Task: structure prediction
Amino acid sequence: MTPEDIVLRPVLTEKAMDGVADKRYTFTVLRTANKTQIKIAVEKMFGVKVKSVNTVTQRGKLKRMGRNEGYTPTTKKAIVTLDESSKAIEHFSALQ
Result:
């Protein structure tokens, strides 16, 4: 599995962007990926040193459209904290 398969996209919400100053970045990741795989993927993709990884699984919400109902997909987010000696990820610094 390549790092691009594990780390799907960055989360660009207001709360996620508050952590960029503390070198804390949030990504949507593959649901079956564990913390070790996420750590290795972020280090390879961005060339940084990861200190810790926290994960959150968000269950899908029940949505209705007329008389039909279904669930949105279940997703997994990873909050990645970089080491103090590591450089920042450039993609996020351009958004501030």
